[in-house]
Write a structure and sequence with these properties.
Blueprint (H helix, E strand, L loop, with lengths): L2 H12 L1 H37 L9 H46 L2 H6 L2 H14 L2 H27 L2 H49 L1 H6 L3 H53 L5 H26 L1 H15 L9 E2 L4 E9 L9 E8 L4 E5 L6 H8 L7 E7 L2 E4 L8 E2 H8 L5 H10 L9 E2 L8 H13 L5 E5 L7 H14 L4 E5 L3 H6 L2 E4 L1
Parallel strand pairs: 1-5, 4-10, 4-11, 6-9, 9-10
Antiparallel strand pairs: 2-3, 2-5, 7-8
Helix pairs in contact: 1-3, 1-11, 2-3, 2-6, 2-10, 3-5, 5-7, 5-11, 6-7, 6-10, 7-9, 7-10, 7-11, 9-10, 13-15, 14-15
The structure holds adenosine-5'-triphosphate.
Membrane topology: Multi-pass membrane protein
GO molecular function, one term: ATP hydrolysis activity
Subcellular location: Cell membrane
């Protein structure tokens, strides 16, 4: 099934009743629109003829004008109801879709997450899902209600005017509009997708450059970065213009088609009147129905132009809905502590292994330091034990809960209390204060951090992340260079604090510093 159809299923399944009612009202809108114009045409012509013939006093103006008023009110009311129902249902479905995409993004495994950058994830959640809101409102509903209205108009024209006129008006409108819409949909496919891709690139690049502002400023490259962004912006607008040009051409073609259908309807119906086969009022009906056809096809034009954008967005969003929720669970050992047996591990699945055949045991109350030159695979070993990546071969056995301080832990905006509550929602202020003291962080719990934990020094941020791991009191503690960015005295205090807080834990540390090695009972070199 194509991604676009999968998305349509999700949207439809979210609120099927509202969608069905919305469609019924959409058909009512289309039909009352055609009927309103048809009846008006008939009425104007019939009243004119009656007046010219001096029969005005006997002509029944009340019933047709009541009918016209009724149709006008029906059209307005059903348009209102249709908009209310379909927009409401679509927006709710998209909100649900956004939650599912966010869910997919957060459930994604380590490999998928490390491939997806922040800007891209934001694009998936916002721009891509926004692009899909036109699927129901601008494409599926106008197409379905238009088709039904066309079929009924065809029957009415056949019955009251004649088969030739019915074929000309409905048949030509339908096939002509279909041809134009297919052409414009195809022609706009690439520019529409490109415009979207460029806009997304611009958004990602803007986030990147904003994040990297200090580096760019120091390197004297701020102006260049600005120029790059402007160039991306110009690219995005160029692609959007190309799409708009195709849309305008489609509009012109549809209007020309409408004029052609109208002229033909006039000529054919006029001919039938001259032959005496229909009355002038019936001819009026035919001409006005021809006018109404243009309205039906025009409604689809926007949707056709956006098809490329929607299709690409669906292609990117659907895989996120099916993100694997499985994690490589480490084998739980009956014995406490940590055991690695013949572990061969790679940074990401599919990459060549960086660590081969590592066998290692860390008992409770023991601290082991993992050493080795930069890039030897210390972090890879810790990621594998933490279950972020599955081992290539060999075994990881953990006897208890694992806590992990990665090399670059993420902090979120909020207070220090919020940061700790993320790991231990039930912890009280006394416990939080105690854990902060153990990592030598003398800051109030109410202190508020900005985006990404900004507002703390590098060493403070690291200690807060460490406190967040410690507060859960894990049985097995994995630390990737825990004292990076700390002065020697603070580093000593933190290392002593860790052991004091978790006297029984099995601790494995990726260590570069002397202090970290001194803390260890054993050293394992990679
Ligand atoms: N996301 C990744 N994609 C591809 N290769 C990676 C990735 N992460 C790490 N690697 C590679 O795996 C190898 C081991 O990296 P790792 O981070 O485990 O080293 P390390 O021993 O912890 O180094 P350091 O002491 O500098 O932190 C490196 O050669 C690195 O290039």
């Amino acid at each position: 099934m194509s991604p676009l159809r999968q998305i349509w299923r999700v949207i439809r399944a979210a609120h099927p009743r509202e969608m069905r009612r919305g469609l019924a009202l959409g058909v009512a809108v289309a039909l009352s629109g055609v009927a309103l114009l048809g009846l008006s045409g008939w009425f104007i012509t019939a009243a004119g003829i009656a007046g010219a013939a001096g029969l005005g006093a006997h002509f029944d103006v009340f019933r047709p004008s009541a009918g016209i008023r009724f149709l006008a009110i029906t059209r307005t009311a059903s348009r209102y109801g249709e908009r209310l129902l379909t927009h409401d249902a679509t927006l709710k479905a998209l909100a649900a879709l956004r939650v599912r995409v966010l869910d997919g993004l957060s459930q994604a495994d380590f490999a998928q997450q490390s491939r997806l950058r922040g800007g891209e994830a934001l694009n998936r959640l916002t721009a891509d899902i926004d692009a899909l809101d036109g699927l129901a409102i601008r494409l599926v509903f106008p197409a379905l209600s238009g088709l039904i209205a066309c079929a009924l108009s065809f029957a009415a024209l056949w019955l009251w005017v004649g088969p030739g006129v019915a074929f000309w008006v409905v048949g030509l409108s339908l096939t002509g509009a279909l041809a134009v819409l297919i052409w414009s949909g195809r022609a706009a496919m690439i520019p529409a997708a490109e415009a979207e891709a460029r806009h997304q690139a611009l958004r990602s690049a803007t986030i990147d450059r904003l994040r990297g502002r200090p580096v760019l400023a120091v390197a004297g490259r701020l102006e260049d970065a600005g120029a790059e962004l402007l160039a991306l912006d110009a690219d995005a607008r160029r692609a959007q213009m190309a799409q708009a040009r195709i849309e305008h051409r489609a509009q012109v073609l549809l209007q020309a088609l409408s004029a052609l259908v109208l002229a033909g309807a006039l000529w054919l119906a006029g001919d039938l009147v001259l032959q005496g086969r229909i009355g002038a009022a019936q001819a009026g009906l035919a001409v006005f129905v021809a006018l109404a056809m243009g309205e039906l096809t025009g409604a689809l034009q926007r949707g056709a132009a956006e098809l490329g954008r929607m299709r690409d967005a669906a292609r990117r969003v659907v895989p996120l809905l099916q993100m694997s929720h499985e994690r490589p669970a480490p084998a739980t050992a009956t014995r406490p502590g940590l055991r690695l047996q013949g572990l061969t591990a790679a940074a990401l699945p599919g990459l060549p292994p960086v660590v081969r055949d590592l066998t290692l045991e860390v008992a409770p109350r023991e601290t082991v330091a993992l050493t080795g030159a930069s890039g030897r695979g210390k972090s890879v070993v810790l990621n594998t034990i933490a279950g972020l990546v599955a081992p290539v071969s060999g075994q990881v056995q953990v006897g208890g809960e694992v806590g992990y301080l990665p090399q670059r832990p993420a902090l979120l905006a909020g207070s220090l209390r919020d940061a700790l509550a993320l790991a231990a929602p039930d912890a009280d202020d006394v416990m939080m204060g105690a854990v902060l003291r153990h990592v030598a962080l003398d800051l109030p719990l109410d202190l508020r951090l900005g985006e990404g934990g900004s507002g703390l020094s590098g060493g403070q941020a690291r200690r807060l992340a460490l406190a967040r791991v410690l507060i859960r009191r894990p049985d097995i503690l994995l630390l990737d260079e825990p004292t990076e960015g700390l002065d020697a005295a603070t580093a000593e205090r933190v290392l002593a604090g860790i052991r004091d807080w978790l006297p029984d834990a099995a601790i494995l540390t990726a260590a570069h510093r002397q202090a970290e090695r001194r803390m260890a009972d054993r050293i394992v070199a990679l």
